[in-house]
Write a structure and sequence with these properties.
- The protein is built from 11 helices and 9 strands.
- With 247 residues, the protein is α/β, with parallel strands linked by helices.
- It has one domain: Rossmann fold (3-Layer(aba) Sandwich), CATH 3.40.50.
Length: 247
C-alpha cells in the first residue's frame, strides 16, 4: 500500500519528513507542486486545477492520499477526476470553500505579496522562520525539510515559492467549484482539523465533513493550521492504522 503526501501552499514535499519517519516499512511518496521547491514552473494567473492534475501525474491508483491545505484540495480534485485513484483520503485542514467561485484579493494574498524573499544563508533563513509564530510549534525536522527544499541558491538564498506566485494562489483559492462536488466522492475520508486554526476553524471543518458521503472528523486539541508539522506523530499514527486496515 503506497501513501501519497501532498503539501500545502508555499511549502514543499520535505515538510512531510517527520510524518514519513514514523512510517517505517510503508512506501511513501511526496513531491513538490508546481511553483514550489523543485516543482515545475507555475503559470500566472493560477488555476488550482493544475495541482489536481499534478496529483494524477505523481500517483498511481489504489493508494492512500494524505494532503494538507491546498494539497488536500488537490487530492480531492484528483479523486473527482478519477474515482479509482485513492482508496482512502486523509484531508488535513482542506482548503475547500463554498461559493461565490471567483478570483479575489484577500488577507493572505495581500500579506504574502510583501513576504521577505531573500536571506544571507540557509542558517539565517532558519533563524528567521523559527522566530515566526507560524513555525513556532513545528517539529524540528519539518522546519529543516522546508529549509532544504523551500529555498534555492547557495550563499544568499531565496524562496523557491515566489511571494507573487503564492499570493496569486491565494487569489485563486475559490475560483473552482470543488465544494459543490464533494458529495460525489464515494471512498471514505478522514478530515483532521486544528482546534486553533484560523483558516479552517472547527465549526467550518464540521460543515466540510458533512458534504462528503462517508467522512469523519477529528479536531486535534492545541493544533493550528500547520497541524501535520505540529503533530507529525499523530498524523503518522492515523496513517499507520489505515495502512493496517487496507493491508
Amino acid at each position: 500500500m503506497t501513501v501519497y503526501f501532498a503539501h500545502a501552499t508555499s511549502f514543499c514535499g520535505a515538510v512531510w519528513n517527520p510524518v514519513i519517519s514514523g512510517l517505517d516499512g510503508v512506501e511513501c511518496v511526496t513531491w513538490d507542486f508546481a511553483g514550489h521547491g523543485a516543482g515545475p514552473t507555475l503559470d500566472l494567473p493560477v488555476d488550482w486545477r493544475v495541482f489536481g492534475e499534478q496529483v494524477l501525474d505523481e500517483t498511481a491508483p489504489g493508494g492512500i492520499g494524505v494532503g494538507h491545505s491546498i494539497g488536500a484540495t488537490a487530492l480531492t480534485m484528483a479523486q473527482l477526476a478519477d474515482p479509482d485513484r485513492f482508496r482512502f483520503l486523509v484531508l488535513i485542514e482542506p482548503a475547500v470553500f463554498p461559493g461565490p467561485y471567483r478570483r479575489q484579493e484577500n488577507n493572505l494574498s495581500v500579506i504574502t505579496s510583501k513576504r521577505r524573499r531573500t536571506f544571507q544563508s540557509r542558517e539565517a533563513a532558519k533563524d528567521h522562520f523559527a522566530s515566526r509564530d507560524t513555525f513556532s510549534k513545528w517539529a524540528g525536522s519539518a522546519l529543516e525539510g522546508y529549509i532544504e527544499c523551500g529555498l534555492v541558491g547557495d550563499g544568499p538564498v531565496e524562496l523557491a515559492c515566489d511571494p507573487e506566485v503564492e499570493a496569486d494562489i491565494y487569489r485563486a483559492s475559490n475560483a473552482h467549484d470543488t465544494w459543490e462536488r464533494l458529495g460525489e466522492i464515494e471512498i471514505p475520508v478522514l478530515i483532521l482539523a486544528g482546534e486553533t486554526s484560523e483558516p479552517i476553524p472547527p465549526e467550518f471543518a464540521r460543515e466540510q465533513t458533512a458534504q462528503f458521503q462517508r467522512a469523519g472528523l477529528e479536531v486535534v486539541p492545541g493544533a493550528g493550521h500547520s497541524l501535520p508539522m505540529e503533530e507529525p506523530e499523530l498524523v503518522a499514527e492515523r496513517v499507520r492504522r489505515l495502512v493496517a486496515a487496507f493491508a
